[in-house]
Amino acid sequence: MKVGILGGGQLGRMLLQASANYVVETSVLDKESDCPAAHLCHHFVQGDITDFDTVYRFGKGLDAITIEIESVNVDALEKLEAEGVPVYPRPSAIRTIKNKITQKAFYRQHDIPTSEFIITEARKELQEHLSFLPAVHKTGEGGYDGKGVQVLKELKDIDLGFDVPAVLEKMVPIHKEIAVIVAMSNQGEVTLYPPAEMIFDPVLNLLDYQLSPAILPEQVLWKAEAIALKVVKHLNSPGLFAIELFVDKNQEVLVNETAPRVHNSGHHTIEANYSSQYDMLWRIILNYPLGNTDPILPSAIVNLLGAEGYTGKAKYENLEDVLKTDNVFVHLYGKTETKPGRKMGHVTIISKDYQDLAYQANKIKHLLKVIA
Amino acid sequence: MKVGILGGGQLGRMLLQASANYVVETSVLDKESDCPAAHLCHHFVQGDITDFDTVYRFGKGLDAITIEIESVNVDALEKLEAEGVPVYPRPSAIRTIKNKITQKAFYRQHDIPTSEFIITEARKELQEHLSFLPAVHKTGEGGYDGKGVQVLKELKDIDLGFDVPAVLEKMVPIHKEIAVIVAMSNQGEVTLYPPAEMIFDPVLNLLDYQLSPAILPEQVLWKAEAIALKVVKHLNSPGLFAIELFVDKNQEVLVNETAPRVHNSGHHTIEANYSSQYDMLWRIILNYPLGNTDPILPSAIVNLLGAEGYTGKAKYENLEDVLKTDNVFVHLYGKTETKPGRKMGHVTIISKDYQDLAYQANKIKHLLKVIA
């Protein structure tokens, strides 16, 4: 079976690591010939995943196509789907999700709990919504890794808002942020991974560290699972989805965002769960039975981001100390150049003891630095 | 760091899967352009690993070189080593091991317990050693996967012996066959994996199924560890080694054979141990600290061999049933063509319950077939 992946970043890299457990001929499309996934596939094609002709030519003749990033040319994927190439997830699901305005509208349309929101076409409209603050302003298109996201607390912040179509989301009194990964097969069977629980860095808006399974009251777990399933049911597509959720101070559960692909919040599943999110996506694409989402052991993820103040050839400070830790798995993404906040790798810790997970995660966060 | 691998089979494939957790530029040399590892490296070079010039050209300019099979051109590796390219393991260790005559002589020289043996230059010499039977006749060079190995029980079997330099090994009253994987760093630090315990198929002489950690009396475990360490100490080389041992009816431990590389008996370490044998070899080559060999859970391996009577394009019968099993990990090596006895994949089962391991292993052995 010939399968193509749009995007050759770290998610593509880990997807290709998992692909070698099965019989599959892989192709990757990315504009950088030295991207993290370029050397792990049968056929690397250098090109722009947002360009119609490039994506169409790449996908034509493949038996299936998937994505590792949602900023792709959806028109080309729709044409490929219409011509019989299965796309994971369906282009309609990618289209709904990739624009944060249509994504929010989708939740409202299907009565999926999410924060209140207002759509803004231009920055000046924010003046009319001062009573709606504090809120988070997010551009419809092009936001990624904290870009295109701005917290607006009060009048003086309004100049920081975006002067492009965007969505203004009412700030939720967050108790916890969790993520649920859901897999749907071609036959419509679904399975869920246990929720992961995370703390965000207020500056970079990137994952700080994550624990899995999340520690949640049963009622909250049930709500989270029901909501995540409802999202995927209405996206109506086989594939793998990560649903990021807020648990508010009243134990209500609200969808924050959905990713229509393997996701940062699922890295731990490589070592900590029977079927990893990457293995699961291959099972879906190859039309194999869905895998077992049970954890083997609880786990934590520490993301390894380029340190502030360093740009250039990456060096991994104190990597040896981390590699000496007994229950730790290091993943470096092979990116030559570091810059502040760039995702350069992650470390997974597994332990039956949650205190050990927290201790090791904190230790690694303080120890391991990507400098230049 | 630029690292080359001689051989592109399934061991190379799994080594490359593990390499993508670190920053390393990989090259593979193999004569088949569609070998299991060809598409998972930065640079694939098509060529003969037994040819001096090919190996020398491949290795020159690399920062390190390793092997996934011992039938390589050792002269070229010695020249590369002399010119400053580190080779894992050292060519002297490969040379000692790759010929079964020098391997046995090595054990004798260092008082390492092994079965009694006689070196034969030609088949006719076997006549002189009838009182030594039953014994196993093994060719010095070129034996692999049961080829070049012949059991000689009595006079009438002598015609089956080899008419090339070979070693006649006295049959050991085997109670158990076990394997211990030992890693040695550049600094001479060593670590051992828990022994694995196996049952061989009397026809194909290939692994039937394997349990790990082996169930052994403490005294036997200590002997096995001490002997495995002694082998590696006298090979005097950084790298990863698999020492196959017999435990006889008197609980004595004897070395059967050593492999100077990642090994079939260590496949389970991918999922069942903190640092897999593949991860460990990268740590050694990259000069990182040695990994943790502890098991996360006990495990079993079932090898997936081409079924008797089928040659041609591989099909995996009942694969779906196996993929439905909760605690099972399937590894297919991506070989297009199957033939009887060819190593096509393996399945790892993990469970804290040894009875479950044995049950699942037997079930999978009977269920999963590679046909054409």
Tell me what you see in this structure:
The structure is a homodimer of 372-residue chains. Chain A is an alpha+beta fold and 372 residues long. In chain A, a hairpin with a 4-residue loop joins strand 14 and strand 15. In chain A, the strands form five sheets. In chain A, strands 10, 11, 12, 13, 14, 15, 16, 19 and 21 form a nine-stranded antiparallel sheet that branches. Chain A has a five-stranded parallel sheet with strand order 3-2-1-4-5, with helices on both faces. Chain A has helices spanning 10-19, 52-59, 74-82, 91-98, 100-109, 218-235, 269-272, 277-285, 319-323, 354-367, and strands at 2-6, 25-30, 43-46, 64-67, 87-88, 117-120, 135-139, 149-152, 166-170, 174-184, 190-192, 196-200, 207-212, 239-248, 253-259, 299-305, 312-313, 315-317, 328-332, 337-338, 343-350, 369-371. The longest helix of chain A is centred in the middle third of the chain and has 18 residues, at 218-235. The first copy, chain A, is built from ten helices and 22 strands. At the A-B interface, helix 1, helix 9 and strand 19 of A face helix 1, helix 9 and strand 19 of B. Chains A, B: This is N5-carboxyaminoimidazole ribonucleotide synthase. Chains A, B: Its EC number is 6.3.4.18. Chains A, B: Pathway: Purine metabolism; IMP biosynthesis via de novo pathway; 5-amino-1-(5-phospho-D-ribosyl)imidazole-4-carboxylate from 5-amino-1-(5-phospho-D-ribosyl)imidazole (N5-CAIR route): step 1/2.
